[in-house]
Design brief:
The complex is a heterodimer of chains A (about 80) and B (about 110). Chain A has about 80 residues and is mainly α. In chain A, about 90% of the residues lie in helices and about 0% in strands. The N and C termini of chain A lie far apart (about 50 Å). The chains are: A mainly alpha (about 80), B mainly alpha (about 110).
Chain lengths: ~80, ~110
Amino acid sequence: MTTLIVFLSLIAFGAVLALLRIFRGPTLSDRVAALDIMNVIVTGVIVLFALIEENPLFLDIALVYAALSFLETVVVARYLEGRK
Amino acid sequence: MEIIGYTLMTIGSLFYLLGGLGVLRMPDVYNRLQAGTKATTLGSFSFILGVGFIHPEWLLKTIVIVAFIAITNPVGSSALARASLKSGVKPDPRTDMGEYLPKEGSEEE
């Protein structure tokens, strides 16, 4: 259990660094890029929760979250590309 | 089996941390995308497969998640870099982009 908490704190530190870039980023592209990185990190955290709770249902949630985050990135990329 | 799983999870969480650090520290959008996407893709490989090694009955689902991330993460990053180049985000002045730099005369306004 202690090792899982160490993993969780390492990943949370990485997510906080990405969140700082979301707050600071000078352009919209910076914010969306940092949000994309944070989505992948959150997918890993959901899989870690499956291990903590001993419940394989969280793996399905992680798969759906990964699909939705990819859709969000592509949609925002198309919006940025079409804007002028 | 558990030792392999925990070793993989350690490597994966360190790479997640390095991905967040790269997003914070790199100078412009393209470097941030490169550092963050590469580091978190390798981190997801190690971390999620590590969970699959600890519980071998979950291995199939974890392989599906890892395959999905390995396909979609570079595609999303590439689309985002292309969109930010087309929407006029200037790269860092130290970057040498060579032939891919948009021409001065042909830039549509």
